[in-house]
Known about the structure:
By secondary structure, this protein is mainly alpha-helical. It has a domain of 46 residues. The protein is built from three helices and no strands. The longest helix is centred in the first third of the chain and has 9 residues. The radius of gyration is 19 Å and the shape is elongated. The two termini are 36 Å apart.
Amino acid sequence: MLEPGQAGDMGCVPWDAFEAVAEDVGPVDEGGRAAWEREALGKFEAIDIPTTTASDIKSGQSSAQPCA
């Protein structure tokens, strides 16, 4: 899916963005990122994933189950 089809969808980074960087990375912004990096990172969605340790599982403080 190159373009979002419905609400909540995210489009892909166009392949030509990667082809262009193979030729020349180009200038970077004040954060040190090139245009292709900004475009790729703009497609990511940060999510919060709770951390569960083996101790949490053993003590019953987590709903996660150890692998069989």
